[in-house]
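User: Please fill in residues for this 281-position structure.
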């Protein structure tokens, strides 16, 4: 058995905090000594570690308590989820450190040629190959000829605006290589439709929560489902940057709000933006 002081020294959590966790019923001692001192066994220490993993993501104590007390609590499942969250956080930190290193080396400049001529050619070839005959006919009809369609695509893709958009995509995917692979291998149209249906269902779930605190576990679970679907749809390991940008648009783009609110209800778009932002922040 370990005393509260020994637990504090081992975990770095203050004795006062451990006492508070006991008071609110989040983390109680295994037993108390005859003198009334709190004592903890190895199983209690493991429980505390799981609580600290949740706290790493600033999840409110009352939500952690609800999860830990849930009869369906799956220890291994929770640990797997926490591990994925920590790995994701580690990767984001590594990217931030790399960005700071670039700034310190004087490399913080905007290079508008994110994808060069040969890479844009590859993207064009992939686009052409993945178009159906009907889609090709539609583009050719619009541009007047296949050569003109190709010429305008290559010209537009080389523009500063397009390259800035490519830079965003690179940021979302984490590297030029992953972003290029995504451009060359788009998701199957049938799968896109299926994922879009799931996203619509998720939007409807969030719309039904309008007015609910976006930090509650039930809202965070729905956004967590959105996170999973987005990763599958865009074939990305981490969609944080993409989703935060989407959240900002939901809260500031009046045109987007008008269109989506007409589908899901007044104020829903901004609310979903807040929910997404809270989840990733």
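Assistant: Residues filled in for all 281 positions:
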């Amino acid at each position: 058995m370990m005393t509260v002081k020994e637990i504090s020294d081992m975990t770095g959590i203050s004795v006062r905090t451990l006492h508070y966790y006991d008071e609110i019923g989040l983390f109680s001692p295994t037993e108390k000594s005859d003198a009334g001192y709190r004592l903890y066994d190895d199983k209690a220490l493991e429980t505390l570690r799981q609580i600290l993993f949740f706290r790493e993501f600033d999840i409110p104590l009352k939500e952690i308590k609800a999860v830990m007390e849930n009869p369906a609590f799956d220890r291994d499942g929770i640990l797997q989820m926490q591990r994925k969250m920590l790995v994701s956080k580690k990767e984001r930190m590594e990217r931030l450190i790399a960005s700071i290193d670039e700034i310190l080396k004087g490399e913080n400049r905007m290079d508008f040629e994110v994808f060069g001529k040969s890479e844009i050619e590859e993207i064009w070839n992939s686009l052409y190959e993945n178009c159906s005959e009907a889609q090709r006919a539609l583009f050719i009809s619009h541009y007047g000829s296949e050569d003109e369609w190709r010429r305008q695509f290559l010209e537009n893709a080389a523009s500063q605006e397009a390259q800035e958009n490519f830079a965003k995509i690179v940021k979302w995917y984490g590297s030029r290589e992953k972003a290029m692979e995504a451009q060359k291998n788009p998701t199957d149209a049938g799968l896109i439709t299926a994922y879009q249906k799931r996203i619509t269902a998720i939007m409807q779930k969030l719309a039904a929560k309008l007015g609910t605190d976006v930090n509650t576990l039930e809202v965070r679970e729905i956004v967590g489902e959105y996170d999973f679907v987005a990763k599958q749809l865009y074939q990305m390991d981490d969609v944080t940057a993409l989703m935060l940008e989407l959240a900002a648009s939901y809260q500031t783009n009046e045109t987007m709000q008008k269109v989506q609110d007409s589908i899901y209800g007044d104020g829903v778009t901004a609310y979903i933006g807040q929910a997404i932002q809270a989840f990733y922040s």
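For context: The two ends are 38 Å apart (CA to CA).
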